[in-house]
Amino acid sequence: MKQIHSNWKMYLDFDESTKLINAIAREQFDSSKVNIGIFPNVLNFVEAVEKLADTDIAIGAQNVNWTPQGAYTGAASALLFKQAGAKYALVGHSERRYIFNESDEATRKKVDACFDVGIIPILCIGETQEDLDNNKKEYRLKKQLTKALEGSEITSEIIIAYEPVWAISEGGQGKPCTPADADDVHGWIKNEMKQYTDEDVSVIYGGSVGPDNVVSYVEREVIDGVLVGSASTKFSEFVDLVRKVETM
Ligand code: PGA
Question: For the whole model, what pTM was predicted?
Answer without folding.
Answer: 0.96
